[in-house]
User: Fold these one by one.
Assistant:
Number 1:
Amino acid sequence: MTETRRDEAIERALLRPVLVTGPWFYITVGVLLAIIFFGLFQWSRQARLGIGQAGMNQPVYWGLYLVNYVFFIGISHAGTLISAILRLTYSEWRRPITRAAEAITVFALVIGASNVLWHLGRPELIWVPLIHFNLLSPLIWDVICISTYIIGSITYLYLPLIPDLAVLRDRATRFRGIYRALALGWTGTPKQHARLERAIGIMAIVIIPIAVSVHTVVSYVFAMTLTPMWHAAIFGPYFVVGAIFSGIAALLVAMAILRKTFGLEAFFRPLHFNNLGLLMLTFACIWLYFTIGEHLTVWYGNEPEEVAVLSSRLSGPFAPYFWGMVACCFLLPLPILAFRRTRTITGVTIASVFVLVGMWLERYVIIVSSGSFPRSEFMWDRGVYSPSLIEISVTAMEFAAFALFYVLFAKLFPLVSIWEVKEGVEQAGVVIDADEDVALAPGLVEPVQS
Amino acid sequence: MKWGMAIDLDRCTGCEACVVACRAENNVPVGGPENAARGRTTEWIRVERHEEGTFPNVRVEFKPVLCVHCDEAPCVAVCPVAATYETPDGLNAQIHPRCIGTRACAFGCPYSVRSFNWSDPSWEAPLDQTINPDVAVRWRGIMEKCTFCVQRIRRVKDAAREEERAIEDNEVQPACAQACPAEAIVFGDLDEPESTVARLSESPRAERPLEELGTGPRVFYLRGDDWRDRD
């Protein structure tokens, strides 16, 4: 068994999704595009006839668009935090999953930020903050932090992609010119490797504070107002925790789908689901701690304006959403994740779906319940929020666009970092029986046992 | 100069003449019952009905609520494009052409006195013939609110400057104050100690709405004593 043969096998397995395109690819893209075009068509009605086509009103000025904004930007924390922290701690098992995570960051961020366009009363003026901006406004903090994060996360996705782009430049059948341009003349010399590792190392450190700042200022959009149950110092860390929590869940669901559809079972292994499942379990506990902390202080403080919102969540019109959130974020995933017997790929994936639903509900509860019960009691029975068809279609469009971005990314670039997996296998000194299909051999990317 | 207002709740009968006058003066569109049912009406001033006690010992208080033109306005801070700002004479103004419709100011405002244009304004005939040429009509997608009838303030200011004199007390009359049959609404300069509004604001009957939030509202509500005691 030579090193060359082993490397060749890894390359072959990881390039297969890029090089081989089956009918299901076109079917998936077609379905996703149909959902996206339906969403765009619905939104064009809103653009033509006005924001009044959405279900919002006075006092619920913010609705599904803002819910999706917070949700998707939360999802985007998967890539950075997981990838950067695991890189910095030299966790060997990270190697096959970092790119899938980093890709989530970029796509979720772009989709999250797009909600601003759907949300604005005058979307044609979305450029105005570039020339008239008020630095005191938390919305401008969002603009600054999110644009920094988009640039940073694209860089952070791109850097580790360079050696693989060079492989594609040499082996791809289509778009070779693009791969050549993007590969920046990578030849794999030790000097190039040293520079790349250094750049990735710097980005991994820089991106962490940026990521934390992003979801902190997203929460400040709410927390800086005097609105009951938004005006809380806990909101910054609460949102960051929720973001990482939902981000892990999104990564796990994506991995579960990708390993089946692109034949990556050898790379996204039970070990990854186990480890990430444990991380998600930790975050479920932190999430519960923050949630109890937030609601208990309000209940104990017993200020009428705050309690009005609280009771709307505990027993009022938002109770189904609130308790659904508690169930999906904690009660249902906890037993699945806590026991080794159920912490299987299927179990962890089911728990992740619960967490995603629960965290979406959390954003809905936070935004709409506080919106419905403002400080002025006179406003309470004015407008009841129920999303219109346009808002629901746009929401579906966003999920479809997220999936489409992922599918196209998988078609253009290897979803698992080829050079990092090779490096890991080499360092681990894995011995593989020469007769097996080495790329799919068990133990190929098993971590270093120390 | 800081414009301010005093509203005597013991005088207010809840007739809503202020509401009608405000609509006519400021081209505030008439939403109609359908929009009202959906929470989609625009209003710069509203009369809230507050009931105290339980039957049969019930007391009803009517409270005209409008933008209180805060000293430290939370709506000004949160607007990303600075479409809402504070003028030197203490008005919280809205630049309609600059507003992009984030609706952040609506959540910034703890008084819920900002209205959003969910659709283009319309007036049923013959109301469409009553548009006030002094005030721009606002279009869909932007936020609007009480201006303390800034057009009337400007007119008086210009006249006073032309005649080289100071603005007299009670010379500026916003539409709501002018229309109030009970003379419950008094408008003027809070920085002028002798003005009616400044004296009323010092009254032991005066209180500022949600004063504990530190927004420094410049609308004062008077209540408690017999209204005939007013000097």
Note: Strands of chain B lie at 3-8, 45-52, 59-66, 84-86, 92-94, 115-116, 143-144, 185-189, 206-207, 219-222.
Number 2:
Amino acid sequence: MPNAFSVTVNGARVGVTEEMTALVAILLSGTTTLRRSVSGEPRGALCGMGVCFECRVTVNGERHCRSCQTRCVHDMDIRTDE
Amino acid sequence: MRAGAYDVVIIGAGIVGAACAWACANEGLRVAVIEADTIGGGATGAGMGHLVVMDDSEAQFALTRYSRSLWQQAAPELPEDVEYESCGTIWVAADEEEMEAVRRKKEFYEARGVRAEVLDASALRAAEPNLRDALAGGMRVPDDAVIYAPCAARFFIERAQSRGAELYLPRVVTEITSEGVRLNDGATIAAHRVVNAAGTWSPMLTPGIEVKKRKGHLVITERYAGFVKHQLVELGYLKSAHSMTAESVAFNVQPRRTGQILIGSSRQFEVESKEVDGNILKRMLARAADFLPSANRLSAIRAWTGFRAATPDKLPLIGPCPGRENLFLATGHEGLGITTSLATARLLVDQLLRRAPGIPIAPYLPSRVPESVHA
């Protein structure tokens, strides 16, 4: 059984394991809008493999992190739509 | 096609040619603009779009101050996509010696009616928290602004067209004749006056004018709204802009309305290749990180280059071309063409119509004998 812990997505606690990416945590939280385009359109993960850059979120204060390429760690603070 | 000759044919639809077209059409002149590529496709599109009062010389100050006031007047009618933002400039002073220079600079600006304020170290920190510690301070020029220049050029062309100007695009001028211009397909366009506003291409059409290409690099980042709030320029920027050395870099960053950050700047003479030079880019970004340490953590999405149209005395050529009765020049604006485009257009029209110019014109006349330039 992988190590279970929690992260926060927009302030809400989400239970995850270390094998999960930030993207999984976001989806588990029920959030689907990860960011906004320049014209304000909602954007979500498309390729899931680090190529399309559509899944960028703020992780521990650092903006434009690809959530599909970021592994969850203890108490990671994930913010979408910033 | 209308019968008869145009009053003015303008070569080049960069910001300078576009502003000239607008000003000429506003006076009821029959105007043609000929553009070889796209509107604002040269230095206009490659540069930052900083509307800035600069004090490299009295003449440069007079021209940039005059032109910035014209931008302020035009601002309410600029369309959204021009992204006019009155963010102001902060000239950043690294040490006490530069603070002395800042205090002199502030007096110079204020004595000439341009608002400026000295920031001490803590005021600078409050204004721009991402600047590194231990900077001495700076000077804020609150009325400087930034724009997205290619859209401004397009807007000027549209305004000129609404006053009857005609745009020939894409058409390439191969020769300026005494009757107008000849195009590369053999066609001719007749005009009483020709304005060479072709920027770095202008010497190809008017050999002998002292305009040289000066390459620059820029980088744009992802959106980081609020990372910097003003256009930030190191006080030593003028040393880089003024020097005639082969290459130099200076700290110069700009916040865009989107939240993106433009990072510059570099200057290189005697380089023709458009390729991004990794070495220059590295030096330029290191300079930026020296002032903004956390810039190292920003994600850049694009780097590109462009060429400024540089003159030996750092002033543009605006007015009649010596020895060519029907030819006027509006070129050689180096890194200030966005700022000085509107003043250039006014001064050009004043000369075409033989009116008194808004500011003394002598320093910008192509017939001037430049003061000797020290390396």
Note: The CA atoms of residues 152 and 297 of chain B lie 32 Å apart.
